[in-house]
Design goal:
The protein has helices at 5-24, 29-39, 43-64, 66-69, 73-96, 99-129, 140-155, 160-171, 176-201, 206-225, 232-251. With 252 residues, the protein is mostly helical. The protein has one domain.
Length: 252
């Protein structure tokens, strides 16, 4: 299908919002995915196209956080490997399971993501208080947890960033902004490898993916430089409303 000019503008705007949100905290899929559903794309096609479209936003977000990423190479390598393997696994599961399974599973995933978004302020406070038992590098349990979040991200991905913030914040003794920078890289790698799988083996709505990519690229820059100034409560409320709309759309 070909979106109308107004629909194309809506997809582009959703890409900008998603790129910004993904860089700041993570859950931009809850903006772009419902918009693609509303335009008329089938759920799996919407998810595949959305994953591909969000890749450039992760790249610009990571570049914007380059100062916070300095000195993190040693801990990043094993976590990146876990993210890549998890992302490939999740993407293969998406393409292997029937579309009916996706329609049944994703509303549950979105509901979990919304709960995480609502609980995010408490999670952030908990992370600040869990510094003494943490370590400079992630251990095997945290690495396995990052792999599991990669599987989730490759399959759907909404709120993967929040999951990663919780995992990394509890496992690593580090400033929260530097943890967020690492989160942007790991979530971006999951999107990238899943996108490669989808390009090779799935039906992609290329115009929609391109519009999201253009918007997410801009959003990634906004998120890295000015996103921390966005009113968190307003942003959280918008994501929750959009997520509820997505659940209703999928169930209906």
């Amino acid at each position: 299908m070909t979106p109308t000019p107004l629909q194309a503008l809506a997809i582009f705007a959703a890409g900008v919002a998603a790129g910004t949100i993904n860089t700041v905290v993570g859950s931009g899929t809850l903006i772009t995915f419902p918009v693609l559903l509303g335009v008329g794309y089938a759920p799996v096609v919407a998810n595949v196209s959305n994953t591909i479209g969000l890749v450039p936003g992760s790249a610009t977000g990571a570049y914007g956080y380059r100062r916070e990423l300095r000195g993190q190479r040693r801990r990043t390598v094993p976590l990146a490997a876990a993210s890549v393997l998890g992302g490939i696994t999740g993407a293969i599961l998406l393409l292997s399971l029937p579309a009916s399974a996706f329609k049944a599973i994703v509303p549950v995933f979105i509901a979990i993501a919304l709960v995480l978004i609502i609980a995010q302020p408490r999670l952030a406070r908990a992370l600040e208080h869990r510094r003494r038992p943490a370590h400079a590098n992630a251990g095997p349990v945290a690495t396995l947890s990052v792999f599991a979040s990669g599987v989730y991200g490759g399959y759907f991905g909404a709120a993967q960033g929040i999951l990663l913030l919780a995992i990394l914040g509890l496992a690593i003794d580090e400033d929260l902004q530097r943890i967020n920078a690492l989160k942007v890289v790991l979530a971006g790698l999951v999107n990238l490898v899943a996108a490669i799988v989808f390009i090779c083996a799935a039906h992609v709505a290329w115009l929609a993916a391109a519009l999201i990519a253009l918007g997410a690229t801009i959003g990634g820059v906004i998120g890295a430089h000015a996103g921390r100034r966005l009113p968190a409560n307003v942003l959280r409320a918008v994501i929750v409303v959009v997520g509820i709309i997505a659940i209703v759309r999928l169930v209906a």
